[in-house]
Design goal:
- The chain has 166 residues and is mainly α.
- It is built from 6 helices and 2 strands, in the order ααββαααα.
- The protein has a single domain, classed as Up-down Bundle (de novo design (two linked rop proteins)).
- The longest helix has 28 residues.
- The chain is elongated and about 50 Å long.
Length: 166
Protein backbone atom coordinates (compact mmCIF):
# COMPACT_ATOMS: atom_id res chain seq x y z
CA UNK A 1 0.00 0.00 0.00
CA UNK A 2 1.45 3.36 -0.93
CA UNK A 3 1.98 6.18 1.57
CA UNK A 4 -0.93 8.35 0.42
CA UNK A 5 -3.43 5.46 0.51
CA UNK A 6 -2.22 4.51 3.97
CA UNK A 7 -2.62 8.10 5.19
CA UNK A 8 -6.18 8.26 3.83
CA UNK A 9 -7.00 4.99 5.57
CA UNK A 10 -5.49 6.29 8.81
CA UNK A 11 -7.47 9.53 8.46
CA UNK A 12 -10.70 7.59 7.85
CA UNK A 13 -10.11 5.45 10.94
CA UNK A 14 -9.31 8.55 13.03
CA UNK A 15 -12.54 10.17 11.82
CA UNK A 16 -14.50 7.05 12.76
CA UNK A 17 -12.78 6.96 16.16
CA UNK A 18 -13.58 10.64 16.68
CA UNK A 19 -17.25 9.90 16.00
CA UNK A 20 -17.25 7.02 18.51
CA UNK A 21 -15.42 9.15 21.10
CA UNK A 22 -17.80 12.08 20.57
CA UNK A 23 -20.83 9.81 20.95
CA UNK A 24 -19.52 8.23 24.16
CA UNK A 25 -18.50 11.61 25.59
CA UNK A 26 -21.95 13.02 24.77
CA UNK A 27 -23.58 10.07 26.55
CA UNK A 28 -21.26 10.47 29.55
CA UNK A 29 -22.01 14.20 29.85
CA UNK A 30 -25.77 13.79 29.39
CA UNK A 31 -27.51 12.71 32.60
CA UNK A 32 -30.14 10.07 32.02
CA UNK A 33 -28.85 8.97 28.62
CA UNK A 34 -27.39 5.53 28.05
CA UNK A 35 -25.42 4.29 25.08
CA UNK A 36 -27.26 2.23 22.51
CA UNK A 37 -25.84 -1.25 23.00
CA UNK A 38 -27.72 -3.47 20.49
CA UNK A 39 -28.10 -6.19 23.12
CA UNK A 40 -24.38 -6.99 22.97
CA UNK A 41 -22.82 -6.43 26.35
CA UNK A 42 -23.81 -3.91 28.99
CA UNK A 43 -22.63 -0.45 27.99
CA UNK A 44 -24.52 1.21 30.84
CA UNK A 45 -22.79 -0.93 33.45
CA UNK A 46 -19.36 -0.16 31.99
CA UNK A 47 -19.99 3.56 31.60
CA UNK A 48 -21.46 3.93 35.08
CA UNK A 49 -18.60 2.08 36.78
CA UNK A 50 -16.02 3.85 38.92
CA UNK A 51 -13.48 3.18 36.13
CA UNK A 52 -15.40 5.28 33.61
CA UNK A 53 -13.94 8.55 34.92
CA UNK A 54 -10.55 10.02 35.68
CA UNK A 55 -10.51 13.02 38.03
CA UNK A 56 -14.23 13.44 37.43
CA UNK A 57 -13.96 13.52 33.64
CA UNK A 58 -15.24 10.68 31.47
CA UNK A 59 -12.68 8.34 29.89
CA UNK A 60 -14.62 8.92 26.66
CA UNK A 61 -13.42 12.54 26.67
CA UNK A 62 -9.83 11.29 26.84
CA UNK A 63 -10.52 9.04 23.85
CA UNK A 64 -12.13 11.92 21.98
CA UNK A 65 -9.06 14.10 22.59
CA UNK A 66 -6.75 11.32 21.38
CA UNK A 67 -8.75 10.79 18.18
CA UNK A 68 -9.00 14.55 17.58
CA UNK A 69 -5.20 14.77 17.95
CA UNK A 70 -4.73 11.92 15.47
CA UNK A 71 -7.20 13.53 13.08
CA UNK A 72 -5.30 16.83 13.25
CA UNK A 73 -1.87 15.25 12.75
CA UNK A 74 -3.04 13.07 9.86
CA UNK A 75 -4.81 15.97 8.15
CA UNK A 76 -1.63 18.05 8.35
CA UNK A 77 0.40 15.14 6.99
CA UNK A 78 -1.95 14.81 4.03
CA UNK A 79 -2.13 18.48 3.07
CA UNK A 80 1.52 19.41 3.59
CA UNK A 81 3.74 16.31 3.65
CA UNK A 82 6.85 18.04 2.30
CA UNK A 83 7.03 20.80 4.90
CA UNK A 84 6.18 18.92 8.07
CA UNK A 85 8.86 17.62 10.38
CA UNK A 86 9.40 13.90 10.91
CA UNK A 87 8.22 14.07 14.55
CA UNK A 88 4.63 14.32 13.28
CA UNK A 89 5.05 10.90 11.69
CA UNK A 90 6.36 9.53 14.97
CA UNK A 91 3.57 11.24 16.92
CA UNK A 92 0.98 9.40 14.84
CA UNK A 93 2.40 6.09 16.02
CA UNK A 94 3.08 7.24 19.59
CA UNK A 95 -0.42 8.59 20.12
CA UNK A 96 -2.03 5.49 18.63
CA UNK A 97 0.25 3.19 20.67
CA UNK A 98 -0.65 4.96 23.90
CA UNK A 99 -4.35 4.73 23.02
CA UNK A 100 -4.07 1.04 22.14
CA UNK A 101 -2.17 0.33 25.35
CA UNK A 102 -4.76 2.13 27.46
CA UNK A 103 -7.50 0.24 25.60
CA UNK A 104 -5.87 -3.04 26.62
CA UNK A 105 -6.08 -1.91 30.25
CA UNK A 106 -9.71 -0.82 29.88
CA UNK A 107 -10.62 -4.09 28.17
CA UNK A 108 -9.01 -5.97 31.06
CA UNK A 109 -11.19 -3.96 33.46
CA UNK A 110 -14.31 -4.74 31.44
CA UNK A 111 -13.64 -8.47 31.32
CA UNK A 112 -12.19 -9.18 34.76
CA UNK A 113 -13.25 -6.38 37.11
CA UNK A 114 -16.51 -4.83 35.88
CA UNK A 115 -17.70 -8.13 34.39
CA UNK A 116 -19.44 -6.37 31.51
CA UNK A 117 -18.44 -5.33 28.00
CA UNK A 118 -19.28 -2.13 26.14
CA UNK A 119 -19.46 -2.74 22.39
CA UNK A 120 -18.60 0.93 21.74
CA UNK A 121 -15.47 0.58 23.85
CA UNK A 122 -14.49 -2.59 22.00
CA UNK A 123 -15.06 -0.74 18.72
CA UNK A 124 -12.85 2.13 19.85
CA UNK A 125 -10.14 -0.29 20.99
CA UNK A 126 -10.27 -2.00 17.59
CA UNK A 127 -10.04 1.31 15.72
CA UNK A 128 -7.07 2.63 17.70
CA UNK A 129 -5.30 -0.73 17.42
CA UNK A 130 -5.75 -0.67 13.63
CA UNK A 131 -4.39 2.90 13.53
CA UNK A 132 -1.40 1.79 15.58
CA UNK A 133 -0.63 -1.11 13.23
CA UNK A 134 -1.05 1.06 10.13
CA UNK A 135 1.26 3.69 11.66
CA UNK A 136 4.17 1.27 12.14
CA UNK A 137 5.82 2.37 8.85
CA UNK A 138 5.93 5.89 10.30
CA UNK A 139 8.58 4.79 12.79
CA UNK A 140 10.51 2.47 10.51
CA UNK A 141 12.40 5.36 8.93
CA UNK A 142 11.24 4.75 5.37
CA UNK A 143 8.52 7.38 5.26
CA UNK A 144 10.23 10.08 3.21
CA UNK A 145 8.18 10.60 0.05
CA UNK A 146 9.82 8.91 -2.98
CA UNK A 147 10.24 12.19 -4.86
CA UNK A 148 12.44 13.58 -2.09
CA UNK A 149 14.55 10.40 -1.90
CA UNK A 150 15.13 10.36 -5.66
CA UNK A 151 15.91 14.08 -5.64
CA UNK A 152 18.57 13.66 -2.97
CA UNK A 153 20.22 10.78 -4.80
CA UNK A 154 20.32 12.75 -8.02
CA UNK A 155 21.80 15.77 -6.21
CA UNK A 156 24.49 13.59 -4.66
CA UNK A 157 25.62 12.43 -8.08
CA UNK A 158 24.05 8.98 -8.07
CA UNK A 159 24.43 8.93 -11.83
CA UNK A 160 22.05 9.36 -14.71
CA UNK A 161 18.64 7.79 -14.52
CA UNK A 162 17.79 5.42 -17.36
CA UNK A 163 14.47 6.32 -18.92
CA UNK A 164 12.67 4.09 -21.31
CA UNK A 165 10.08 6.73 -22.23
CA UNK A 166 12.53 9.18 -23.84
Amino acid sequence: MNQRTRLWLLLTLALLGTAVGAYLAYIAWSPGLTAYCTGLGDCHRVQSSVYAKIAGDPIAALGLLMYAGLLTILTLRLIAPQVLPRPLEVWTFALALSGAGYSVYLTYLELFVIDAVCIWCVGSATIVSAICLLAVPDVQGNTTPPARRVGRRQLQGAGPVARSDV
